[in-house]
Amino acid sequence: METIGRLMQGLNGALQDPQLVQLGVAALMGLAIFTLLLALMLVVKGMFDPMRQRLRKLETNAAGASAGSGSAGMDQWLGPLGERLAPDKAETRSRLVRELSYAGKRSASAASVFYGIRLMLAVLPATLMLLAFPLLRIPPALGISLVVGLAIAGYLLPRFWLERAIKQRTTLLRRGLPDALDLLVVCSEAGLGLVAAIQRVARDLEVSHPELADELHLFGMQTRAGMDNKSALRDLEERTGVEDIRGLVTTLLQSMRFGTSIAQTLRLYAEELRDKRTQEAEEKAAKVSTKMLFPLIFCIFPSFFVVALGPPLLGALRALSAAGH
């Protein structure tokens, strides 16, 4: 008890000193900021750690739930919310489902969740802005404009995200296809069948090209479930939407139809794809000179003219001013 009393007295004496109080507050703020930065660093490191991502993916596949518990929770309350905003036309819904599959979202409730997120982003920021009007003291006209602008931006933001996700996933699939073709050629020439070769290539591409590996894994699961190779290839073409994969599927279907060698067909298509990539690279290289014209004119030439013509102009101005006097 005496020790506690002495500590209380020392604490009261320290609180009466303003300098000690300021020093303690500064120390606590510094400790809080350091803890916050450390927590953010650990969170970011855990989110982007490839080993953790791979382990999480394996746990999800072992559990048999491709969407995960977090996605299931979103489906429970965003799905019914999006059903009210979903269009009645089956064509519009099927087009959205196809676009979501291009982005890698193939769950049954993906379209409903998309519309639910769109409705939530349109309503929630506008509601928060309406609640903040008394505190911000914004003029009514400006406040209404902000509410309408936030609602429109929240409604259009999921569409922008979807287009960006489709473009990014398409680029990743096209980037991994040449490696997959080379491996398919090697596996086919080694004696493996088409399904076995695709499954082996899918296992080899899990680290370097996980998006393409997922699509090939799904092809393997469909064939193991009883779907024939042609239907599985058609489904691979439809759910990816990549032109190069569409050409590969068409080539393989023609090879199956006419009974030609699949290994030779894959080798020829790999050479054609390599030539196509070379032509695209040459086309982009030819456009560089035209694209560099505008930065040269608006960014480099003005500074060059200032450096090159500035001193002579200043000398001429001095000479003219001296001659005038």
In short:
With 325 residues, this protein is mostly helical.
Notes on the protein architecture:
- With 325 residues, the protein is an all-alpha fold.
- It has a domain at 171-277.
- The protein is 86% helix and 0% strand.
- It has 13 helices and no strands.
- The protein has helices at 2-15, 18-47, 50-63, 68-83, 90-102, 110-136, 140-189, 194-204, 210-224, 229-240, 243-258, 262-291, 293-324.
- Helix 7 crosses helix 12 (262-291) and helix 8 packs antiparallel against helix 9 (210-224).
- The longest helix is centred in the middle third of the chain and has 50 residues, at 140-189.
- The radius of gyration is 32 Å and the shape is extended.
- The N and C termini lie far apart (95 Å).
- 16% of the residues are buried.
